[in-house]
Amino acid sequence: MIKGSISPKMNNKMNKSLRRDISHIAIILGIFVLMILFFFILKPNYLSYDNIMTILLATCVNGLLALGVSFVIFTGGIDISVGCVMTFSSVMSGIALTKWGFSLPLTIVFGFLVGAFCGAVNGFGVTKMFLPPFIATMAMQMITKGLSLVVSGIKPVYFTSAPGYQNIATGNFLGIQGFYNAIIILIVIAVIAYIIFSKTLIGRFALAIGSNEEATRLSGVKVDNWKIAIYSLCGLFAGFGGLIMSSRLNSAQPQLGAGYELEAIAAAVIGGNSLNGGEGSIVGTIIGALIISSLTNGLRIMSVSTELQSAIVGVVLALAVYFDKMRRKNA
After folding, report:
1. Residue 307, C-beta contacts closer than 8 angstroms, at least 6 positions apart
2. Within-domain flag for 7
3. Is residue 3 part of a domain?
4. Ordered alpha helix ranges (H), the chain
5. Which of 2, 70, 94, 155 has the highest local Cβ count within 10 Å?
6. What is the pTM of this model?
7. What's the pLDDT tens digit per position in 134-161?
8. Would residue 35 count as lying in a domain?
């Protein structure tokens, strides 16, 4: 090789990095265009401090779920159970607190463990039972949706016996009015997710599995074990989402959760994570979640019906997948 020349492998890595950076810039520009559009339509109401805090608060649950789903998408898989797993985690936390006498810290940890366990079962179904990810996670979606209703008796489980529980999400951070604790929790979890993705084996192997699972297996990596770990991590993020959601409502609503998985997947895909696996980023996921929240919030202020909001988000998701396919084809 001529001194100073760049190897094909290095050149390919640089091209991927460049495409990812361009994708992030395009997504960020998309947010600004969206906000400017809503600003001209809604005037100062949209970009007011209170509304921006509302958008960020709405991003917290969707963002946490999207972070978990992203790790699964990196492997080329999918998890459509995160919304119902989130609800089941919060319901089980409420039962543990109100009926089993758990302390508040133990209740919170228990909710996380329930989410992680559901994720591990998903991973087991995919790797050991050879179920397609869509089928395995759809089964978990139905199981947790049913169990949430059975365990709760189809009634909300209230956290009124735990003073201050609601402040976990809706309390003002450092006393700053409207700057909710949930926003800080999302930022901290996003940083942790970024470190896991970029600095640990779980992130490296997730991309490797998504790029070429068989080659990764032949290289000595225990793919099944890592897949189970990744699905468990996804369930853990759903547990965090359950904490934020139940804290905001000061209750666990057993009928809530269905539909959240679609917004989480939409946020991950809009953020530049390829459904084919092997490519994506945590930063892009958070940006995608912000786009979904900003879009939904603007449409809600414009009094657009919930049904039409879902249709518009669906169109945005379809376009995001289409552009991802075109980008990969051109690359």
Report:
1. none
2. no
3. no
4. 8-42, 49-74, 82-98, 104-127, 133-152, 167-170, 181-199, 201-211, 213-218, 223-249, 260-270, 282-301, 306-330
5. 70
6. 0.89
7. 999 999 999 999 999 999 999 999 998 8
8. no
